[in-house]
Specification:
Layout: E1 17-18, E2 21-25, H1 32-48, E3 56-60, H2 66-79, E4 84-86, H3 93-103, E5 107-111, E6 120-126, H4 135-146, H5 158-163, E7 167-169, H6 173-183, H7 186-189, E8 195-199, H8 206-215, E9 219-222, H9 244-251, E10 259-263, E11 270-273, E12 279-280, H10 282-296, E13 303-306, H11 312-320, E14 324-327, H12 331-341, E15 345-347, E16 353-355, H13 364-378, H14 382-393, E17 397-404, H15 407-419, E18 424-425, E19 428-434, E20 439-443, E21 448-453, E22 459-466, H16 469-485
Parallel strand pairs: 3-4, 3-5, 4-7, 8-9, 8-10, 13-14, 13-15
Antiparallel strand pairs: 1-2, 2-6, 5-6, 10-11, 11-12, 15-16, 17-22, 18-19, 19-20, 20-21, 21-22
């Protein structure tokens, strides 16, 4: 019997950026030495652009070494004569995304590994406008950092930096919450008597999301809100497999909760559970929010999705007379696409989304508030809204899988996909093939299959969408067979 892939142990200590910043295993690639080297490379870029007077804003989440890393980075920027606004305690990633343009900072930097397992940490960088830097920028950061020795790093001791005013501690929770509440219709939610269950997954959303829900007069019961760098022993990703406690809480509540909401470890992704305890996929949530923004809030415009997100958004856009746009995986591509077609909503099947007029990055806290507003203004439950949208778009069914990605696979799988043109997957004719990001195989009736290597984890991801659950599994089995046949 052929063995499935057994990945080699990751002992590479180089800094490598993926679609969601730099991430690595703590004690291997992720070390304070690498944090300092990367900070020096980024500081060099700030100096070359003459942006030192604008300073940088730095924060960290609840992971191991996040606070120490944020301070280590601050010492490097201070040592390079770049003022630092250091956010105390733990903060959500969207708050740092917001803080960069709010403070007119040269950059926003947060220490986080988002939804990765507890043994990981990393760094995300945001531009002055809150957008993620493009590949050529992050490639330059990592290449310069990897070429450095420890002697190339300039630091200023934290105590001295604070006394000199080069590092200033500042809380930005209120401005961030106030900015959200200027967009979300807080008054519309008051009086709705909405009761929600919330799972921050031991992450960073409790204070900000709790404040917003309180301002809405929404009664909220939180679980997993304490500071736990082990995240209860699981990766803090708000998907079906990891929200069992939230689902059980709603199912056993005798109808108390009208909604369950969750955010990932750094609060930029959302997970939703309806009033019956059914997990609502991000694909379905994007459909609901696109319809709501367009038809109830009257915000005209199209929708942007990455290539692993449902084509039902395209169907809904066509029904509404709007454009849809497909982009590569990585939220920087989503926001770039939104600007290109002036979209009202951009999102991805992994739980990230933003709307026109908000930050240029995904925000699970904002998304939770928008869902609460949607329920209050429509007067409908999630389950009712979903059935209504299906009447417009019809149904498609998704399936996903992943296998550990070895270096050999990263060469062999693309080579095999390019070697012979695909004309069919089993009995299903291939309409088109794209190598924009991995390999996406387009079939008839908005069905598709995708193979791509993750930009955040050593995993080969497989995703499909089809007319029925059975066909989706059939397509997924074909992908699995294709991958394993080359091993």
């Amino acid at each position: 019997m052929k063995r499935l892939f057994v990945p080699k142990k990751n002992t590479d200590t180089k800094i490598v950026f993926g679609t969601g910043g730099w991430r690595a295993v703590i004690g291997e690639g992720y070390t304070l030495a690498n944090v300092r080297r990367l900070s020096q490379a980024i500081a060099n870029s700030v100096v070359r652009q003459g942006l030192e007077p604008h300073g940088v804003v730095i924060g960290g989440d609840r992971r191991f070494l996040s606070r120490e890393s944020a301070e280590a980075a601050a010492e490097v920027f201070a040592g390079n004569n770049i003022p630092v606004t250091l956010l105390p305690d733990d903060v959500p990633t969207p708050l740092v995304t917001f803080a960069a343009p709010y403070l007119d900072a040269a950059l926003g930097i947060i220490v986080t590994s988002s939804h990765n397992p507890p043994e990981w940490n990393g760094i995300k960088v945001f531009r002055r406008d809150g957008s993620l830097p493009l590949d050529e920028e992050t490639d330059a950061y990592q290449d310069e950092a990897n070429a450095m020795s420890v002697d190339d790093v300039i630091t200023l001791d934290m105590a001295i930096a604070r006394r000199a005013g080069m590092v200033v501690d500042k809380v930005l929770t209120d401005p961030y919450v106030d900015a959200i509440e200027k967009i979300i219709d807080i008054e519309a939610v008051r009086g709705s008597e909405l009761v929600v269950a919330v799972d921050p997954m031991y992450g960073t959303s409790q204070l900000t999301l709790g404040t917003i829900l309180n301002d809405m007069r929404v009664r909220a019961d939180f679980i997993h809100e304490t500071h736990n760098p082990l995240f209860g022993g699981i990766a803090p990703a708000p998907d079906l497999q990891r929200l069992s406690a939230l689902i059980s809480m709603i199912k056993e509540s005798n109808g108390r909760y009208g909604l369950g909401m969750a955010t990932d470890g750094d609060s930029d992704r959302i997970g939703i559970v309806d009033e019956t305890g059914e997990y609502i996929t991000s694909n379905d949530l994007l459909l609901l929010l696109f319809w709501y923004l367009h038809e109830v809030r009257g915000e005209k415009g199209g929708v942007v999705r990455n290539l692993s997100t449902t084509h039902l958004l395209d169907r809904l856009a066509a029904h509404l007379g709007e454009k849809s746009y497909e982009c590569k995986v990585g939220f920087k591509h989503v926001t770039a696409g939104m600007e290109k077609i002036d979209a009202v909503l951009g999102g991805e099947s992994s739980g990230g989304l933003t709307v026109r007029g908000w930050i240029l990055g995904k925000d699970g806290i904002f998304a939770c508030a928008l869902v609460a507003e949607m329920l209050a203004r429509t007067g409908k439950k999630i389950s009712e809204l979903r059935e209504m949208i299906y009447e417009i778009t019809g149904r498609l069914y998704t399936a996903e899988a992943g296998v550990p990605a070895t270096p050999e696979m990263r060469v062999a799988v693309p080579r095999r996909l390019h070697a012979e043109p695909l004309t069919a997957i089993g009995p299903y004719p291939v309409v088109d093939v794209s190598h924009l990001d991995g390999t996406k195989i387009y079939l008839e009736n908005d069905n598709w299959a995708l193979l791509r290597f993750s930009g955040t984890e050593p995993v080969l991801r497989m995703a499909v969408e089809a007319d029925s659950p059975e066909k989706a599994e059939e397509l997924l089995d074909w992908l699995k067979g294709f991958v394993t046949a080359g091993v």
